[in-house]
Amino acid sequence: MNHPLPLDGITVVAVEQAVSAPFATRQLADLGARVIKIERPDGGDFARGYDTAARGLASHFVWCNRGKESIAVDLKDPRGLEIVRQLVADADVFVQNLAQGAAARLGLDADTLCAAHPRLIAVDISGYGAEGPYAHKRAYDMLVQCEAGLVSVTGTAEQPVKAGIPAADIAAAMYAFSGVLAALLRRGTTGVGGPVEVSMLESLAEWMGHPLHYGMHGGEAPARTGVAHAVISPYDAYTTADGGQVLLSVQNDREWRRLADQVLGRPELGADPVFATNTARTANREKTDAVVAEALARLDTREAIGRLEAAGIACARLNNVTDVAGHAQLAARDRWREVDSPVGPLRALLPPITLPGGPEARMGAVPALGEHTDALLKALGMTDEGTAALRRDGVVA
């Protein structure tokens, strides 16, 4: 039996920008929802201008906005705001991540909209939440990574660093996505929608679970150790003879004995008290790393991976983004597709949620700014003359 995509028939209206809300609504679009993206007439979502790496389009925008319809509307003009209110009246879900207080001033906050439309699920994504001393503080991804402590546990002993991806934005996006799914499930049994609140700080603080609990209950945070593990050794990346890097992880003392015998070629290290237990290896991390590094430096990357796998030792190549784009596993599982865009087809990964027995994720086109303005206004009953007048006045684009 072929099942439909789970969100077929669901309409989402989003006043969104940057990453957190757009990435959340892209998940909904991939699962079949119709997503109407409200953008500013003067340039649209500012993520459109972050870079030109995707054949002239911004890589962030291409990543987060496929499968959506774009309507460019000036929310500061009462006529533009009325258009958005009409779209929301027929929607199942509304998502916004405007600056704190901006949605409320427009009457587009979750409480106001849900009072007017009881079946509506309205999502407010903020940096720090609606109340508290940080409520109106600017909340860009890197700032929230700092506030949530992620930067303090990422990097080397000498240098803290931010995550190389927008972790705070992604965390908030995924909680907003799952919050919408939960609210839709609840509406299916109660008939009532309601507000959903997600903050970037609270989302990323939840993801800080291990170091947070380690520090709260153990008295101090785990040390920054680069790609090494704070309490397991050996667990690090080592350079191979051909200049590659291989990360390996020894999880217990049995694995250490196999590593010493089958990879390092020094079986006596399995029982050596300096190395025999994880506690000893961690206390003697420099010595442990030195003997592993010396052995792997004599092997090329392919040979090192082969020996580690034969010995049952967890390992991985330290890939760069070009390596990932050509990853054999992604190719073997046929995870790459092409999505349309204003500059032609662009390569993109299938979303990670796979639903066997149903259609593939709906990976629609990346929209041009205002590409669907005319069609959406016509669906609301606007005449061609009315649309032309709004366009002349700069209310729509």
Radius of gyration: 26 Å
Write out the strand line-up for the largest beta sheet, numbering strands in chain order. 3-2-1-4-5-6
Content of β-strand:
5-15%
Order of helices and strands: EHEHEHEHHEHHEHHEEHHHHEHHEEHH
Average the pLDDT over all residues and give the rounded result. Answer: 96
The number of distinct helices, counting runs of at least 4 residues, comes to 17
Oligomer: single chain
Query: What structural category arises from helix and sheet content?
Result: alpha/beta
Largest sheet: 6 strands, parallel
Bulk shape: elongated
Distance between the termini: 43 Å
- Helicity range: 25-40%
Low-confidence stretches: none
Instruction: Count all strands and give the number.
Output: 11
Q: Can you tell me about this structure?
A:
With 397 residues, the protein is α/β, with parallel strands linked by helices. It contains 17 helices and 11 strands. A 6-stranded parallel β-sheet has the order 3-2-1-4-5-6, sandwiched between helices. A 3-stranded antiparallel β-sheet has the order 7-8-9, with helices on one face. The longest helix has 24 residues, at 167-190. The protein starts with 10 loop residues before the first strand and ends in a 5-residue tail after the last helix.
